[in-house]
């Protein structure tokens, strides 16, 4: 383990649903990744399968730790605290690295000593087939990192990056929000550190039912997550773009609250959306809030 070039941190709830996919993720982070790796599985929360937890603890070549609180940011931080290698990376328990994917990233960071991290393209596996994870390419991203993040989260997912341990520290994960984690990390790192983007795909992300980004809690969590990003020292044009996204998120919450009959919450979110740049486009929606509630 002390000879590892890359530490791979895999946060997981370790519930029965992930009983098969997590082993695929672990296998992809081993020798077929092309690097000498140390794999840290961070089981977090109380929803874990006792049998799966025991299997992870007993598996050779894995460091398995348990964090009682179910929190992705906390799991990432706990994993980062245990990094002793030159580089580190993350991987969701339902995704995978492509063969040689970590070696491709490592080679780039060793060739470009100035770069603090590298992010690469990847594939999104859906029921309809395999699609590119994103549409932006390296030239556009490296020319305008923050502006391109407003267009598209090119960090995309945990599997996309490799980080130089001396440059990307525990502090970068200490205030990470519970949602939009990789958007937050992208803005935090790209605003102050040199990096590279590689158009070659090195990972596969699996679009599965029940993933966090499909949940209602995820959409509700976008507001505090965007607030956290706005606390970063970002240029004024970028902040304005983020505030537009905040207005859209609050408008969506208002519509959802109204649909549930929570008229007071709908008004609160609506007024907050109007205060953001571009918020006047939601003004006509006020008529829906003023309309009489439908009779039961």
The CATH superfamily name of the largest domain is Spore Coat Polysaccharide Biosynthesis Protein SpsA, Chain A
Global morphology: globular
* Class inferred from helices and paired strands: alpha/beta
Order of helices and strands: EHEHEHEEHEEHHEHEHHHH
Number of domains: 2
**Beta-strand residue fraction:** 15-25%
Overall residue-averaged pLDDT value: 95
Count of beta strands = 9
Most strands sheet? 9 strands, mixed
Low-pLDDT segments: none
Helix content: 25-40%
Radius of gyration: 21 Å
Number of helices: 11
CATH topology of the largest domain: the name is Spore Coat Polysaccharide Biosynthesis Protein SpsA, Chain A
**Which CATH-level-2 architecture of the largest domain?**
Alpha-Beta Complex
Q: Termini separation (Å)?
A: 64 Å
Please identify the top-level CATH class of the largest domain: Alpha Beta
Walk me through the structure.
By secondary structure, the chain is α/β, with parallel strands linked by helices. The protein has two domains: 6-212, Spore Coat Polysaccharide Biosynthesis Protein SpsA, Chain A (Alpha-Beta Complex); 235-289. The chain is built from eleven helices and nine strands. Strands 1, 2, 3, 4, 5, 6, 7, 8 and 9 form a nine-stranded mixed β-sheet that branches. Helix 7 packs parallel to helix 8 and helix 8 (216-230) packs antiparallel against helix 9 (236-259). The longest helix is centred in the last third of the chain and has 24 residues, at 236-259. The N and C termini lie far apart (64 Å). The model has no long low-confidence stretch (mean pLDDT 95).
